[in-house]
Automatic annotation (TrEMBL):
It comes from the Bacteria. Residues 264-290 are annotated as: Disordered. The lineage of its organism: Bacteria, Pseudomonadati, Bacteroidota, Saprospiria, Saprospirales. Keywords: ATP-binding, Nucleotide-binding, Transport. GO terms for molecular function: ATP binding; ATP hydrolysis activity. InterPro entries: AAA+_ATPase, ABC_transporter-like_ATP-bd, ABC_transporter-like_CS, ABC_transporter_ATP-bind, P-loop_NTPase. SMART domains: AAA. This is Nitrate/nitrite transport system ATP-binding protein.
Length: 290
């Protein structure tokens, strides 16, 4: 079976000439059908750039990004993306926001099919009571639920998530992690999660790959998460594999952070100057000259 996503020697830069910034350098990555991959990395390392190459919102500067063997030329509903900022249409209700996405993918559905489908996904994210509310009437967590429902209702084969839960409180975050996992597991779709939370990555993914700090970021080593599913957060904390993989990833990130700190090992060389004593000749003549 063809991999769902393949990066072949991909580099991405912004700008030209002197203003050119190389963000990603020579990325090679294969994501298998049905896999849940997490990418962890430092802020500004290029995670959003990486995921946008998969959505088709960006094109590589060099190399190829393939979806099931074909170059990605633009966004498509089979690759659904959940962003951190929920980007809902403010003048539409929850129902209408989800409906808009459904219409795009299933334009020939009857009113009844459409209605059942929208309500199913609104219910799935626990928002049936708010189905007729507008985004301004919802909390941040509720808005993010709508955006998740909206993407899931389009039934994407590949679910791309760019730090989707970063702004949420711990409880809402935990609930949505479970909902996403349940939906991913039901039809065994493929998923890519961008996160800066190692524990979230271990809880959700089959494999974690760190993105090294930029500029010209490359991928670090992969860490396989061999924990049975469904995973239980409390049990997981006592699992020797969890503890080992967590320590390995954190050590790797710490070491990257240390290496990325500018002039970490450089000794500071001070200019060779002689202090001038007030009252000395040179001090007085200096002030006279001024
Ligand atoms: N359109 C653009 N034009 C120029 N530079 C850009 C553009 N988009 C991103 N960059 C730069 O590319 C680098 C990587 O950005 P990117 O958003 O991919 O990182 P990130 O890892 O997702 O960051 P964060 O975790 O803070 O969201 C940054 O230095 C950013 O300033």
């Amino acid at each position: 079976m063809l991999p769902i996503i393949e990066f072949k020697n991909v580099s991405k830069w912004y700008g030209h000439g002197n203003t050119r910034t190389e963000v990603l350098s020579n990325i090679n990555l294969t994501i298998e059908e049905g896999e849940f991959l997490a990418i962890v990395g430092f802020t500004g390392s290029g995670k959003t750039t990486l995921v946008n190459l998969m959505t088709g919102l960006l094109q590589p500067s060099e190399g190829e990004v393939l979806y099931r063997g074909q170059p990605i030329t633009g966004p498509a509903p089979e690759r659904g993306i959940i962003f951190q900022n929920y980007s809902l249409l403010p003048w539409y209700t929850v129902y209408q926001n989800v409906g808009l996405a459904v219409d795009e993918v299933y334009p020939y559905w009857t009113k009844e099919q459409r209605n059942l489908h929208i309500r199913k996904f609104v219910q799935m994210v626990g928002l049936s009571h708010a189905v007729d509310k507008h985004p301004a009437e919802l909390s941040g967590g509720m808005r993010q639920r709508v955006s998740i429902a909206r993407v899931l209702a389009t039934d994407p084969d590949l679910l791309l998530m760019d730090e989707p839960l970063g702004a949420l409180d711990a409880l809402t975050r935990g609930n949505l992690q479970d909902e996403i996992l349940q939906i991913w597991g039901t039809n065994r779709r493929s998923a890519v999660l961008i996160t800066n939370d190692v524990d979230e990555g271990i809880y959700m993914a089959d494999r974690i790959i760190p993105l090294d700090p930029g500029p010209a970021a490359g991928l670090g080593p992969e860490f396989r998460i061999e924990l049975e599913r469904p995973r239980d957060k409390t049990d997981m904390n006592h699992d020797p594999h969890f503890k080992r993989v967590r320590t390995d990833i954190l050590n790797y990130l710490v070491q990257l952070g240390e290496a990325g700190r500018p002039d970490r090992d450089a000794s500071l060389t001070l200019p060779d100057i002689q202090p001038i004593k007030p009252g000395s000749r040179s001090f007085v003549s200096k002030w006279r000259r001024a």
